[in-house]
Fold this sequence. Notes:
The protein is built from three helices and three strands; from the N terminus they run βααββα. The protein is an alpha+beta fold. Strands 1-3-2 form a three-stranded antiparallel β-sheet. Strand 2 (38-42) and strand 3 form a beta hairpin.
Amino acid sequence: METQTPHKQNFRAKEAAEYLGIAVSTVWLYAKQGRLSPVKLSPRITVFKKNDLDNLTAVV
Length: 60
């Protein structure tokens, strides 16, 4: 996992992919499968919660 600033709680898809060490398309696949829960902030901005990303790595 790539280290991020400790206070960062929301990650865009690209940032989430870098944090998890996976491809952006895999982030969206996990969202589609229900393994990640995307949060829509606006029609063009979707983020993923750091806790969800950390929980995913604990399972994988």
